[in-house]
Design goal:
The chain is of the alpha/beta class and about 400 residues long. It is about 40% helix and about 15% strand. α11 packs parallel to α14.
Amino acid sequence: MTAMTSRPVLNRRLAEFGTTIFAEMSALALTTGSINLGQGFPDTDGPEEIREAAVRALRDGRGNQYPPGPGVPELRTAVAAHQERFYGLGYDPDREVLVTAGATEAIAASLLALVEPGDEVIALEPYYDSYAASIAMAGGTRVPVTLRPHEGSFRLDLDELRDAVTPRTRLLLVNTPHNPTGTVLTRAELAEIAKLAVERDLLVVTDEVYEHLVFDDAEHLPLATFPGMRERTVSIGSAGKTFSFTGWKVGWVTSTAELVTAVRSAKQFLTYVASGPFQYAVADALRMPDSYFEEFRADMRAKRDLLAGGLEQAGFKVFRSAGTYFITTDIRPLSESDGFAFCRSLPERAGVVAIPNAVFYDHREHGAPFVRFAFCKRTGVLEEAASRLKTLAP
């Protein structure tokens, strides 16, 4: 408490959100000299030609001053073309596309715009930590529906999802490909989600930032492509995950003109605008040939397999991700059950940092034995991490 007031300084809606586990684990990596496989950012930059496009924009004076509130026209046009090219979704770049300061702002602006105090928001648990904070800031009530381990992956119980909907439910918050589990929702699962949203007249916000990182037989299917969903879905994308420029903070929203206008009404009072020169570079990036996306996916799949193999040799039970750049593991075969304690001791024991999945759960007991590792790192780094982790083998 301060001398000015007996009330806590921090808004009570945010009281449960202290320093993130990512900050704690990254600090631990620095102090112990450990390999950081906790936070999900690449350790190499994306394509050189895209970096040079940003340099040209800076030198040419494009974006050095405030860009237009909805985003530069070149990027909005490129986003619309990307949605048409990959998914057959047509959007008007002037009315149905909004550029944001990364996907995190897109999520926050969407929830602040569409959720009122007392509204319930259903989110698939475990979930990216900003979901909970954004729902809280909007005054909503989060209702988790838990993805559960089943035959080597985490699956959605559609009956549980349907039972979670009440007259107070306003919105479904869906993430596929899913962080942290690596699950990619199937066509059948998405069809049932769409059917439920239409039946109960629900809005849907879909976080699709890992859309180009799907492996093996998995397929990314935007929810907006399903019957009745184009008019009720806010889709969120990001350049950071697809082009490995996470520091540029360029994301976007695509939806109907009505929903985009609502999201922009909230977004304009957050950053207003951001990332001016980078927007021009991302416009170029979205026009990269199919070969870029195929090679990017193949490279990440090889890295997934490398780290997954090392984790299996170390004794973990591995859920081999179908998408994203994260692997979830079960630590119980190592005679461990507390993910927090395990991750805090791992730097000293093996010189590697990971994240306990329990931080992504409301029902923390459901996530207690699971630990997430990021494989979006250089091959040599992953090989060294795998070698270090072998010391844990029973």
